């Protein structure tokens, strides 16, 4: 969805419902995805560049603000994509916009740094111990 500030990236939302008022005005009911930098706590090292969080923030917008269609994949399906396009995103957390809480509140960690996997970074598995 088109932001009011054209220097910012497009907003990502899930369209829940489309309705017309009968006078040619079309409204969309959306559920917003947040980027990590829009959440309490901000962007962390393990957040991927295409990562978004499904929020509990619902809204009604003019259909004219829709710029196009994108796909929000599960984390697992995103990591299996052969090629990631401009309109591909992934979500592994739900975000409560009023409390700043995440669900799940924990994810698997990898590597000696014990950080969650960032799909933007190459990870190599040790063939001997199968550790990352």
From TrEMBL:
SMART domains, per the entry: BAH (SM00439)
PROSITE patterns reported in the protein's UniProt record: BAH
Keywords carried by this UniProt record: Metal-binding, Zinc, Zinc-finger
Protein name (record): Chromatin remodeling protein EBS
InterPro entries: BAH_dom, BAH_sf, Znf_FYVE_PHD, Znf_RING/FYVE/PHD
Top-rank taxon: Eukaryota
Start and end residues of each BAH domain: 1-106
GO terms assigned for molecular function: chromatin binding; zinc ion binding
Lineage summary: Eukaryota, Viridiplantae, Streptophyta, Embryophyta, Tracheophyta
Pfam family, one: BAH
């Amino acid at each position: 969805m088109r932001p009011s500030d054209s220097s910012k990236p497009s907003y990502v939302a899930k369209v829940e419902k489309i309705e017309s008022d009968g006078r040619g005005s079309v409204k969309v009911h959306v559920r917003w995805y947040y980027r990590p930098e829009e959440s309490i706590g901000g962007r962390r090292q393990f957040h991927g560049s295409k990562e978004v969080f499904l929020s509990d923030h619902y809204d009604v917008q003019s259909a004219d603000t829709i710029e196009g269609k994108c796909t929000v994949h599960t984390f697992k399906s995103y990591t299996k994509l052969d090629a990631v396009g401009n309109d591909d995103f992934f979500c592994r957390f739900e975000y409560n916009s009023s409390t700043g809480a995440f669900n799940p509140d924990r994810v698997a960690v990898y590597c000696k740094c014990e950080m969650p996997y960032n799909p933007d970074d190459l990870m190599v598995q040790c063939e001997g111990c199968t550790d990352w």
